[in-house]
Amino acid sequence: MEPVGVLVPKTIADVQAALAICREAGVPVLPRGGGTSQCGQTVNRALVIDCTKHLRRVLEVDEAAGIARVEHGIALGALNDALKSRKKFFPVDPSTWARCTIGGMAGNNSCGSKSIRYGLMADNVLAIDALLASGERHTFGELPDNLGAGMPAGVAALVQSLRALGAAEAEEIAARFPKQLRRVGGYNIEALTPAARAEGRGNWRGCWWAARGRSPSPPRWT
Question: Which residue(s) pair with 184 in the sheet?
Fold first, then answer.
């Protein structure tokens, strides 16, 4: 399918303006990463937004905390090159590391050969600065039981409904849901149960524009 158009934004403000125009015109929006996924989600009849040319900076590295704050268009290989002199690395390592972007990896919950030890992308993202379809900008991170007044009403309602689903179906999920490290079909609904939330496995949210990660992570399995 051919895109309606392609946007190569220089700033987040460019992205916000494009979203506003598309929202008014009823045009779908497709944020594109490195285009390395095998599932075809990087093409569609939509406005394709490609941030790999300009929005690809490492904004901050906190060596003591092991946290990097980056723009979503940066490739994994470029991030690890920037971290190499600090003797750090981002442990999620798809085979397409030279081209895949951090934003695309977060949206796809990428893994790699080190995922058995260090976990998936969902285990290595602390927070995401997101632009919502409504035009609102919100930072998603660890969610307390009390969501607070700072969260957009629509997002709060979605989180509450997902938590209610996890609580209502916790026994069924525990009894029947496959014990797999990663799956590409269906949803990771096991992360919604009260037990998973208590272990901190349900805090990640889908990525749009910027992510903060930590590296190296504690081993997932011992």
Answer: none
Say if residue 110's pLDDT is above 50: yes
Residues 6+ apart with CB under 8 A from 152: 132, 134, 136, 138
Angle at 33 between CA 29 and CA 36, to 5 degrees: 120
> Which of 56, 55, 97 minimizes the C-alpha distance to 80?
97
- What tokens does 183 get? 């799956």
Cα distances from 44 to residues 52, 105, 136, 143, 184, in angstroms, run: 18, 19, 24, 33, 19
In this predicted structure, the answer to whether residue 208 has a pLDDT above a threshold of 50 is: no
Compute how many other C-beta atoms are within 10 angstroms of the C-beta atom of residue 79: 23
CA distances from 8 to 19, 54, 100, 105, 213 (A): 13, 8, 17, 19, 24
Following DSSP, what letter does each residue of 90-115 receive, concatenated?
-----TTTTT-BHHHHHHHT---TTH
Mean pLDDT for 45-54 is: 95
Instruction: Report yes or no: 77 and 97 within 8 Å, Cβ to Cβ.
Output: yes
Residue 71 pLDDT class (50, 70, 90 cuts): very high
CB 128 within 8 A of CB 208: yes
| Residue 147 pLDDT | 78
Report, as an integer, the average pLDDT of 107-133: 88
Tokens of 144: 């307390």
